What we know:
Elements: H1 9-21, H2 23-28, H3 37-46, E1 47-49, H4 56-69, E2 74-80, E3 87-92, E4 96-102, H5 111-129, H6 134-146, H7 153-178, H8 181-193, H9 200-208, H10 224-235, H11 242-245, H12 255-273, H13 281-288, H14 329-343, H15 350-364, H16 369-377, H17 381-393
Parallel strand pairs: 2-4
Antiparallel strand pairs: 1-2, 3-4
Helix pairs in contact: 4-5, 4-7, 5-7, 5-8, 6-7, 7-10, 8-9, 8-10, 9-10, 12-13, 12-14, 14-15, 15-17
Amino acid sequence: MVETVGALSYHRGVLGHVRRVDQRAWEALLPEPEADPGLDEALLRHTYRLDEDGHPELHAAGRRAAEALGLEVAIEYYQGDGSAAPNASLLHQAEKAVILFEGPLLERLDNDELAAICGHELAHRLLWTLEDGAYLAVDRLLDAAAGDARTPRQYLETRRRWVMASELFADRGALVACGDLSTTVRALLKTQTGLAGVDPEAYLRQADELDLSTGSRGTSHPEGVARAWALKNWLAGEDVEILLTGPLDVDSPDLLDAALLRELSMDFAADIAQTDGLRTDAVATYAAGFADPPGPLGVPGGAITRFDEPLAVRPVDGAPIPRPRSLTPATKQYLCYLLLDLATADPDTGDAGLIASMGVARKAGLTPYDDLADDELGWSDKRRAQLSAAAEAIQ
Length: 395
């Protein structure tokens, strides 16, 4: 059984990026140790406080969860008014943890499931208090960015993945709190479906029928079946953060993928510019522009990377090496255009440059390249056949 919960690689990667790129904004949002009397009054006016005298099982479950997570904090519990859907949420306070229940959730949970639900909510507090509130500051920054119409899409995609990462982290807190996978999934299912009786093992089998390598399509929470899959595979020591990232997609990168795509473009451009038939000053100058900021051409790292195979991604902050990521068709098309731009950057390279670029495409597994170049340059069938044959001959 996994006994500790640490920030996900995704959390650490985004934190590192924000500290480098948006340090002043991030520092301004670091939490201050102040209470919020307005929240206390709102809770007293509009909810039912679940005191220990009337709800000893709930308080015992909360203490069990806090102890399992290594948290020493006062916990208050409230039940919302009205007929909302079953749910629980953490209202983060500096000096205490406040868990708000809504709908008929409490009456459907046994003591172990209560511990799982409390563990989930308290894990949010654990994350927000790690590294003196560093992750809470990132959360606030991304929330503020999402509310601004001028925010670049990369920040919006980062926020989507960030909040899903936080839910996976909290799910791990639920598992650590109750100590049992089936119980954790059962509590998750009862919360999501509103059912009093559920079959967690059947849900885990359902999760195994899905290909989750394409990532979650959730906006704030991963799909429940994906969360169950992530818990099961986390226990088995597997990297499950493919749920957050999916394939590398040039059309919807987050901040980390944008940096990865810039680096990938720079390395690929350097490889192309040092290929026989394209090794000219004009091509080298064009390729150097893919560096950020533009600079001297880098040294290629040996064999050209194959883009028809999952791409190896470096680990973040000493985390385990993540699963290789495949490239979407849009990303492969982008790399084809990069190759074609360099192949035509210097008119003096002529057919030799085009043939060399087709050879690079074959080595890189960029099978759409010939069709794309044909469409853009308008080759005749005869000319295309000649160029293709020459490219095959240099393999």
